[in-house]
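Handout, section 4.2: multi-component inputs.
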Amino acid sequence: MPGLGRAALVVALALVVYAALAGGYAAVKGRRRLGDSARNALVASFVACLTASLVLWGAFLSDDLRFTYVAEHSSRNLPTRYAFTAFWGGQEGSLLLWALVLTAIGSAAVLLNRRLVSDVLPWTVPILGAVATFFLLVLVVVSSPFATTPEPADGLGLNTSLQNPYMIAHPPLLYLGYVGLTIPFAFAMAALASRRVDERWLVATRRWTLAAWTCLGVGILLGAKWAYEEVGWGGWYAWDPVENAALMPWLVSTAFLHSVMVQEKKGMLRVWNVILVALAFCLALFGTFLTRSGVLNSIHSFAESSIGGWFLGFICLAAAASIALIVSRLPLLRSRTKMESLVSREAAFLYNNLFLVAFALTVLWGVAWPLVSEAVRGIQTTVGAPYYDFFAIAFGLPLVLLMGLGPLVAWRRASLRSLGAQVAVPAAVAVAFGIGLVFAGAADSPAGLIGYTFAVFVLAAIVLEFARGTHARKALGETSWPAAFASLVGRNRRRYGGYIVHAAIALLVIGAVGIGAFHTTRVATLSPGEAMTVEDYELRLVGVTDQRVANREELRARLAVTRDGDPSGFVSAGKNRYFAPGETPSNEVAIRTDWLRAEDLFVIGDQFNADGSVVLKVFVNPLVNLIWLAGFVFLLGSVVAMWPDAREQARLARRLSYAPAVREA
Amino acid sequence: MTTSAVILAALLAVAAVLWVARPFLLGTAKEAPFSDDLADERLRLLEERDRALGALKELEFDNRTGKVTDADYRELVGPLRREAASAIAALAALEPDAEPAKVTATPPPVDEAAAHDRPREEQPH
Amino acid sequence: MASRRIPVRLVVALSVAAALAVFLLYTSFAGGATDSLRPSQLLAGNYAGKEVQLAGIVKGPLAGDPHAGGLRFTLKDFDGPQKVEVVYMGSVPDLFAAERHVYLRGTLENGTFVGEEDSLVTKCPSKYAPKADGEPT
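Output:
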């Protein structure tokens, strides 16, 4: 069976090379049949990648330890669901996943827009083929999942920290996000290559971009939740290079999603948009590179690997090609319209873009500087949380404010007076909250206080937008308030879905400020019977247990929790020590959530002493659960924004009945 | 490689080659040009028209919800209507025999007082 | 408001300038990056009293209590014989043991490297297991 996998990969590689070369030739010479053939090759490459993937999955699910890759990432007693996810547990499998997802969604995007690609954007297929060629080339030549070794007695198994539900979803979602960004990139570059200046590539890839961006966002939050619960140091985001690797393309895609709206409404920012989409794609590649090449000290950097140089080379190639193409098409892209006012929604989107991209670039600098420094000075450097926190605040706070102001300001031009009238109520609510928070003690962290106030402003502005819009729709003749609301959202899913996403971000900010600026930490050494106090909680050490369970030894400190004097149950925190050789101990924190206050009592059993005492590190993290709630609201908003709209579809079809048909993605 | 693996691999390769060669084997697609300048100009004007019409509808709704004051509305609505009208006129000039019914909406008459009373059906982005 | 045509480029240029200003302000006042040194580099350079990150291999014997008085151990170069004595207070990652790669922040004082509290991090011995705690709060 490994032979079948290897053969399938070779077939896939041949197909994508053909797709790239034949597709390119067809685009240059205007050969439609050759172009269709290249497209077919891309679709066929998906089947080949799927074959290879099924071989590997089959090997995992049947514990076929002749496969070196399976032996390294699975073991005989691994539960089935983790045997399934161990597929992407290492470098080779992750590359195969990239290739599989790329050929899958590349084929889907091209097939769903068959006529557009065939008639107008013939370069889409060769570009997708070229990207796929890179991954398949690495898979075939450098890093194959189908290497075999004499069968060992048992596999090394999957790291225990990765055996949890979050780690089932987190990597595939991130991959869907990274790979998904290839679609708008390919369509945009194809439009440039064919000298198209119209919006068809935008319309066709709109939902793909939104879906990729949503997957990235949810993936990042799942990773954060995993880190919070499983790694358990008390925080949720460590500015680790691998975390940042996903954050950077997400920030740039967020900017892109906003600035394409300006392009749609006013035909402006065309150059900026193609730069953004190329930047997002390159950052997605860079993110994959960071996670795979073990180049940086990081929480899950992989062992020194053979593909770092390949990746870096490909990223440089993609960046150089994109820049060259954009520069050569600059005269075509320049728009005649200018921005009419610095106080308008276009301007707000522009400011938002500048902050988002600036933030992404500072994160990139923080990630890249240690590498650059070592190359230049011979001394490594590290960039710590203070650097990132500073810019998160410096750029983040204005972004939150813009999130509130943007929806309140009209397109083209808004007089300061009308803006003032719109802003008055939410601002008043926010200021009132702010003053209340000062009395609650929030002035200890000025940045935190401002963050809370701005987030409340955003939420109030959103509520007002929904209210005013519903009222207007009712006045226009809807029968009831719920019908008016449904009609409001239904007729403008992107806008109101977007508002829901803004609300999610506001919630996230509140949670992040709560845990970031207002958490409390206590460290104490307790012997059985002794107690410690943190905020409203008292924790009394009832006993220390040491149990053998299945494959591990469980050390636990059992604590009785009292809240404001009332007994509140027990928590157990400690460590697991695994018997399997090479298995590392894991931190098993205890988290007690107060849903009403969205706050967590977070207990780490840091050290178990020989005399029976325990060193405990206890956090009270206010409002942290709003971060996870934000994830759900984010997903809801994205789904609303992406929901197909028959009316809009019909309108586009009428518009384009004169021109080659385009199907809105 | 086991026999079954060889057979499957061979099947995959053959199927791939056939699928790739399909457009040539069936010979259905004509070697038509990818696009022409007239279609491009039409599309550009259509996008311009839809942009202006969409902006008009949005402006009207924003005025209803109070985001755009009456004074600002009066200032902004004129240029937008002219943009839409010129795009529609240019489209008509391009294709004299085009059906007017294809155009989804005509610009409202320049009558500010009546404009607010007329119920609007569509709400733009 | 009078109709003005504002070039996007001007706005972009001004904003880039503003961002650069923020960046320069930060790096001059707050200081972003810390040097990450091996014991040989620490001893060779003039780092007394300066906060740096020290990375190396743990050599025993391990003595003391990190939560009471300080954990004492030696850090050796990855590929050299130079060693530095370290004293550290705070959380110790589960993976911490002799012969493991670790790094921590701190200052060199009188020949001993005094670690910053809770800054000890162990780099994983195996492929991609997550590093244990030790994150600064």
